Amino acid sequence: MSVKAFELVPAVERELLMGDKARINIECIECCGKHLYVGTNDCFIHHFLLEEHTTPKGKLVFSAQKVLHKYLGLKKPVNELKAASALERLMVLCDNTVIVVDMVNLEAVSSGGAKIKGVVAFCVNENPVNGDPFCVEMGVICAKRRTVQIYMVYEDRVQMVKEVSTPEQPCAVCLDGYFLCLALSSQYMILNYSTGASQDLFPYDSEEKKPIVKRIGREEFLLAAPGGLGMFATAAGVSQRAPVNWSESVIGAAVSFPYVVALDEGFVTVHSMLDQQLKQTLSFRDGHILQDFEGKVMLASTKAVYVLVPRPLERQIQDLLAGHRVEEALTLAEGAQRNIPKDKFQIMHRRILQQAGFIQFGQLQFLEAKEHFRKGQLDVRELISLYPLLLPSSSSFTRCHPPLHEFADLNHLAQGDQEKVQRCKLFLISYLREARSTEGANGCREDVDTALLKLYAEANHESLLDLLASDNACLLADSAPWLEKHHKYFALGLLYHYNGQDDAALQLWVRVVDGDLQDSTRSDLYEYVVDFLSFCSSLDLVWKYAEWALQKEQKVGVQIFTRRAVSDEQEAQMSPDAVIKRLHKYHQATVLYLEHLVLGRRVQKEAFHTHLAVLYLEKVLSLLSQSPAPAQQVTEAREKLQNLLKESSLYRVQLLLDKLQDTDLLLECATLHGKLEEHDKALHILVHRLKDFPAAEDYCAWASASRDQGYRQRLFHLLLGVYLGPDAPGNEHTVAAVDLLNRHAVMFDPAHVLRLLPEGWSLQLLRPFLCGALRGATHARHTSQVALGLARSENLLLKHDRLKYRGGPVLVSEKKGCQLCHNTFTEPDCVCLPGGVPVHTHCAAQRVRDSPRKRQSTNPSNHT
């Protein structure tokens, strides 16, 4: 695919060069800065001064001024010219002789050493190995000798420093450092003239085709290969670039990165070194010279000289982008990086990536577009601005100039195709989400978040609530109307909350719950409002909306207070007493809140326990007053009351007893008497009035819980006494008494029980009790014996350990002497020194007196 990379501009017209002399032809050219030298077939060298000018339309033109021309006097064509600007010398090949002339006056250097004869071709080393800046290295092909000679050219002489033999006669040469790239008669080769190492490249036929050997960079060459290929080869003999496919009849080549320019009989072709594609073709007749001089590509026919002026790289890239040739534009930009200052390249490259991204965005190639936007560090607002109304009205953003794309907006891009519009919006959602999580939204977070909110609301996207519940920068002024438009009232409430406007949020949610506004986002919005109020820091708002919540449903509304964790600062306004005072109109809510305080938080306050017990009692009495009374509800209500009466010890017992007078709640009365330690009354109620013997036994177990054994025994004896009392009916209570004894034998003193029992009871009737009592007594006796034995064993072990730590026996006899005075022992009393050595007691005492700093023996006990 074509791109206009170069423009052909005349430099030296025919008239200026040769006037009316028709037979004069150009043989070679050399350019050094503004100085152009032309060698002709009549043995003349022409010196021109080239000046560059830019036309009002921005085009580059050249004006040539002839400075001098010089006849060399050899009557042969001037075959080659090479300039050495540091020396102000010009090397001229004419009649197989290299002559050094002055660049200014074109006079030959007078020294006889400034001439080389028998030369076929020569080249200058553009990567010299000699460090002398006033010396030029030159490679020379010698005629008919199969050798290449290396010369040093000085201001007034030339000096040969090396001669290298070749397997065949060379016909073209190029020099880079120590490496010679040679075109022999049948092949190309690389030759290191310092080490003599050589590397054959590939064959060709010099008789059929003119060889081309061109240095294009450090230790890299361009060669004309068979099959119309331009091959790249390094000094190591390998190719690091793919070949370019030019014509079979190429007669010259030049490099202007990133392009390879080739000249054939009728055309100039331009190929890219980056992708090897043909980019431009220029018609050019009678061309026979193509060379590049310090980045300037020059072209000559037999009569005139031209310059191939490269178009600015940015214009080339923009042309490619205008043709939607994204990959070619990026390849060209990245390939030209080495020729552009780093800062300038980065700016240019980012813009090209952004443009490429918009091109692919317009083609709905979203993955590629996203990658180019990311690499190009696109200001995300450039993309948002394509979507009408997404940017906040307060945004100060203006689009880049010149513009990065050709679209007015999304509607212009989609041309009415709603599917395209939706796909583009989904892409923007994805892109904005990624931009929020990276640094892509830095400096424009408000614009990004507001745009994302609008897209979410419009698409009914599930992430809308996640956005508003997290840290965000959505602008309230722009977002609120948009959310209202799409009936996202719950989301709007979250936005109000995030902006510190909780009252506005609650007002909105209350209207949705009441049905004044329609929003199906949350079916449990009422429960959400209650939960919100339970964590709301503003007590004014809590009291304001608690009334509404309790009117809706007391069971749920009371959670505003039961879930709440009250801080020290709020304790006075949100104390339990204050809450109960507010809840007095709502019976169910009051009960639930008191249950939370008494049963949940275990608040130890008499008023709360008494209040809850009274409310439980009123509930039971209310149910019992109904006709008929709902049995299931009565049972559940009485269970609650009974559990509270048993578990709590803080309520006012006498108050409740007074309320229970003249009621049938006998079990509750018995419990209250138990709280007053009036166990006889409680048991009388259970046994004589309720005749609930299991309840009486349970009462004894409950009332004696956490008490000592004696207390429990007295309570069970009291129950037995009730069963056996004189006012008890015989048969029924006898059975209850026997069951009590048999089931709880361990709770009774057998001797005391036997004194209470009527004499007429048979032993068979009391057998379980007596067996249990006997087993209990026997078990207690055995247990005490085991405990005594264990204690004795432990005492014995302690005595053993004591003896073990006191040490073994010490033997003292009349025949054994004291280690201090060496006298024998006459008495059994002694002191044992460390190591078990016995000494006299007085000797040990004397030793202590004589050595007060020494410690006494660690074991001063006497042993006999």
What features would you highlight for this structure?
CNH_dom, 4-stranded antiparallel sheet, Methylamine Dehydrogenase, Chain H, Herpes Virus-1, Clathrin_H-chain/VPS_repeat, 42% helix, 864 residues, alpha+beta, VPS39/TGF_beta_rcpt-assoc_1, disordered C terminus, 21% strand
CATH level-3 fold name of one domain: Methylamine Dehydrogenase, Chain H
Strand order of the largest sheet: 1-28-27-26
Task: Please report the total strand number as a whole number.
Answer: 30
For the biggest sheet, the summary is: 4 strands, antiparallel
**Portion of residues in helices?**
40-55%
- The assigned structural class equals alpha+beta
Describe the structure.
With 864 residues, this protein is an alpha+beta fold. Among the domains are: 306 residues, YVTN repeat-like/Quinoprotein amine dehydrogenase (Methylamine Dehydrogenase, Chain H), CATH 2.130.10.10; 67 residues, no CATH class; 54 residues, 2-Layer Sandwich (Herpes Virus-1). Helices cover 42% and strands 21% of the residues. It has 30 helices and 30 strands. The strands form eight sheets. Strands 1-28-27-26 form a four-stranded antiparallel sheet. Strands 2-3-4-5 form a four-stranded antiparallel sheet, with no helix packed on it. A four-stranded antiparallel sheet has the order 6-7-8-9, with no helix packed on it. Helix 3 packs antiparallel against helix 4, helix 4 packs antiparallel against helix 5 and helix 25 packs antiparallel against helix 26. It is elongated and about 170 Å long. The N and C termini lie far apart (123 Å). The C terminus is likely disordered. This is CNH domain-containing protein. It comes from Aldrovandia affinis.
